[in-house]
Fold this sequence. Notes:
alpha/beta; Molybdenum Cofactor Biosythetic Enzyme, Chain A; Alpha-Beta Plaits; Maf protein; 15 helices; 18 strands; globular
Amino acid sequence: MATEHRTAAILAVGDEIVLGQSLDTNSRWLSQRLFDLGIVPVEHATVGDDLGAHAAAFRRLAERADMVVCTGGLGPTADDLTRAALAGASGDTLVEDAGALASIEAFLKERGRAMSPLNRTQARRPSRAAWLPNGHGTAPGLAGEVGACDVFCIPGPPAEMRPMFEGHVRPRLKPPTDRAVRTRALHCVGLGESDLADRLGSLMSRDRNPTVGTTASGGVVSVRLRSVAPGEAEAERLLDADEHEVRRLAGPHLFGADGETIAGAVVGRLVARGRGLVVAESCTGGMLGAMVTQVPGSSAVFRGGWIVYDNRAKVADLGVPGALLGAGGPGAVSREVAAAMAEGALRHGRDRDADTALAITGIAGPEGGSPDKPVGTVFVALARADAATDVRRFSMAGDRESVRRWSALSALAMLWMHLAGAPATRLLREIEATTGVSGTGA
Amino acid sequence: MATEHRTAAILAVGDEIVLGQSLDTNSRWLSQRLFDLGIVPVEHATVGDDLGAHAAAFRRLAERADMVVCTGGLGPTADDLTRAALAGASGDTLVEDAGALASIEAFLKERGRAMSPLNRTQARRPSRAAWLPNGHGTAPGLAGEVGACDVFCIPGPPAEMRPMFEGHVRPRLKPPTDRAVRTRALHCVGLGESDLADRLGSLMSRDRNPTVGTTASGGVVSVRLRSVAPGEAEAERLLDADEHEVRRLAGPHLFGADGETIAGAVVGRLVARGRGLVVAESCTGGMLGAMVTQVPGSSAVFRGGWIVYDNRAKVADLGVPGALLGAGGPGAVSREVAAAMAEGALRHGRDRDADTALAITGIAGPEGGSPDKPVGTVFVALARADAATDVRRFSMAGDRESVRRWSALSALAMLWMHLAGAPATRLLREIEATTGVSGTGA
């Protein structure tokens, strides 16, 4: 048993990963979490479903780090070998755990399923290891030792892995006590990573404490701060000072910290202002509604949506004038139709106290582009009960999925800027804005 | 020098990867490419910018595989240590290569930049290694040896790594000539991994050829086949035979192969039957619509949707009887309301030739559960113009996001089973089915 966890190694197991059929995202996530806790990851390794290779990896990594987290190989089938590999690496034998068995049985029973002999193997563990409860699946985890190294084994599916790490691994961790490491992420929308880096300037030099870095993912650009200090209070104070400066430099683009999402920030501000939101989606097909309703408590502000991918639905459900869609009109992907969709949604949403509407229409590809309106052309409209409709044209890059994600995100960014009191802010990938356009005369 | 490359190891280098700041996608890409060429990846490893750890990784992996591909650590700065690590692992010394230097100079000159002392270090290589040209950046690659193992080092940025692999590593590879390796994935919905394994039975024994394994991800369970044979035709024939058997054993649960999705399979079948689909979503908030419209060409069958997260929207947009929602009624999360939502959507969709409607209402959490209807309780209804409405009650596990994903997926699975001619198939996490229920008398 390690007295302190200063270093960690991460082991991912599975033929599907080592052969390239699946992308391992667990190792990155675990590294971030451990590093945030002050434990330094020193190596990632991935081996296939091979008992010898897996046990050898356990033994080797146990020499290299104070602790190992292993993901995968805990399923019910013959190629799930983590239980046996841990026993092998620690010179132990497998026993059936009555508590684990009862937990699997209860999980299955709750879902109207019976225990199979395969599920029963999931209750096995090395005799000197403990089992870790899994609230989201049948595979219990394991906490054991190989030599002086603490080894934690948790399932591969991220929806099971993450809560198990937080609930059952993290409480068993022993980060170094002679120093405190603290991290904070600050999230921005509507600007690019290099724009943000330009704004941050010398904050990003590598020899500072805190260190300041940027990452970009799916339209959100994040500033990551990491401070090291003798004590927690000092580490937090260093972060607070830098956060203050980053907020000043990023301005209204900054919407939240750490686990916050742009949808969550928008919902929070709509709640605070007592507003009601409706959405009208063409090319995104429901993705914007799905993002908003992903926020717990969004029911306080989300008043509904219309997925009007089909032009007949645009007319029938939202009252978009047929003339806009027909020959000679501007067409379904136009500022006029975006405005008509948002204004129609607002009109239909009045019976449920909606006063804010977002609409998206665009060409997600791969087909449907033209020289005037290539794939990636997207119009987003924001209509409000108390102000003129704002319509922006965007040029999104990437494949169908990227264009759709960026479209939904840009709609939220546009609403965020209005709510943040910076309605004129030009957004990343925006190529033209028009305020006061109306599609319906409503 | 290995006479043949039967096995490979992949090494990724960089603090940003091992600390979790960046996600390594190179190792997966390289594994896929190597495996397609008949070379079996046996391990991935990631180490930080640390000379000792990097050289040790080269030596260890050289014992484990016939070849190693290393990405990263070839930049111009002090933390780029791949050149030195390869020299250290092979007992060699670094020399400056005139050809590499000229190539870097030419690359910079073309872009109006001058050679810096830092760039000059990129022309160094172990004396017994060769340099590999890089058409997209300043970092040359390396081809060297550690013991009998061939080692290829290429830069980390995917835009440089991929063309260098194709242009300069691949021609140096020596895949086994005595065998061909082929893989195939077959995807299923509506059953658990252990159910599927039970059906596959002895197909999954580890000494077969093809090998047959299963993986589960987000509600889809996949069967992975891998054959090894003296020639490609024979390897394909082995896969075909096993695919035939897997299809027989999985029955209607199997919906597609390799890159196919359940939404794609459902859309394909709706297109083939000339049907039109509408959706009504409460707890999923648009996610089902987003999944369907993610399929290119879904516009041929998708006729629109209503996001009726708010009860007032259920009444106003879909005609759900208010009495079902009020005190004394079954409530918003009930079989009656699911049926009324689907039937209302169908009625409203008739003007655009919809004949099939899916509706979802449930409790995604974290709030809103009750003893009768805990978080995870979800009703899915399928209404059709030509058949009685089918409503199923599910008990979903996991957090809000998981409950919502599983709900949307289960709705697609339910429709798939109907389209596959197996309407009575009980689905994973389904706890009760009722056919002929109607919420509206429509």
